[in-house]
Amino acid sequence: MKKIENIKLDEYFLWQAFVTIILLALMLFLVINQEAVQFYANNFQRVTKADVQLYFFDVGQASSTLIVTPDRKSILFDTGSTDSAESLAENLKFILNKNKIKNLDALILSHSDADHVGGTMVIMQNFDVKRVFRPKQLSYIEDSSDGYQVVTTYTYASAIQSIYNEGCPVEYVNNLSTSFGNLEIEIFAPNRINYSETNSFSPFIYGQYYNKTFLLTADATAEREDELLTKLEQSGRQMKIDFLQVAHHGSKYCSSEKFLKAISPKYAFVSAGDEIHPSQEVLTRLKDVNVRKTLVTKNDGMLGVGIYKNNYIICDMHQFFDVPLAVMLLCVFMFVLWHYLEVQRENKKIVVKKFCNKKRL
Ligand SMILES: [Zn+2]
Questions:
Q1: Are 254 and 220 in contact (CB under 8 A)?
Q2: How far is the CA of 202 from the centre of ligand 1 (A)?
Q3: What is the pLDDT of residues 137-178, one digit of tens each?
Q4: Ligand 1 is a single-atom ion; what residues have CB below 5 A from it?
Q5: Which of 105, 292, 341, 354 has its CA 20 to 30 A from that of 70?
Q6: What is the CATH number of domain 43-316?
């Protein structure tokens, strides 16, 4: 009898140890993979299944946006700053994997500022990039014999050099009208080569999927916004924009009242990370044109937009309940409950045994 009891006791401890190890491993996994778990747990998963996807990466006071097309082509618009390059590469890899996309079909650098090209080297080294585009600005590593504006930022020069190092040619961004399945993309390149501000070289990327539209702006200035309105009118494109990337991190010098009224954005997305961006002026102007929601990467983390033929979904990393913490608490609760039930079961056995023994007596 004693022998049998010992075996039962050993089994009990073995099971307890086994379940404890599993729960601890699960908790450890959750702690290490907080971001991944959050990604799966919230609506981001639904965004990754949408026909057209837009991602505004949280890269601090910088900008990097990804477009995933219905035929699963990927277009990266800017690479953020040098500081955020590693995290950008990580998030980019995660999204491309979710979409089973193996390479970056196009990288478009909007202009030479460090907060838009800083992550280029890391992107070039970690991804198979098919084509790279940039506006007609030159860095100091090239000659200016063709008359284009010479821009001498070290980060830009390093970025361009890193593209050449990977054996990838660099093409100029020109006006372009193309389609990926039913997604029509229009690139509105800068009109001139002699803007006084570097930011004015930023091309606009306009997209239309059935009746949904989006507009990516990088650091486009008010001067360029005016040009865009004229071009949009001429092209006969839908003027109303559903998803707008607010220009120049929400700077008060762009997103003019006239521009916002003309495009009447439904949702606004701001890539910003410092204290002065987005400006209160722009937030007010957006409110005045009845934007349903303005999301900012510094407050909401990475932002995602999933566009379907008749529907859309918008997500941010921080709007949902902290799922990993909730799952961890649930694990602890389950463990305590399980332990309690086991103790109860053992107590019952003892009571029954005592009762039987008494009966025998
Ligand atoms: Zn910028």
A1: yes
A2: 10
A3: 654 444 455 545 555 678 888 898 999 999 998 898 889 999
A4: 115, 219
A5: 292
A6: 3.60.15.10
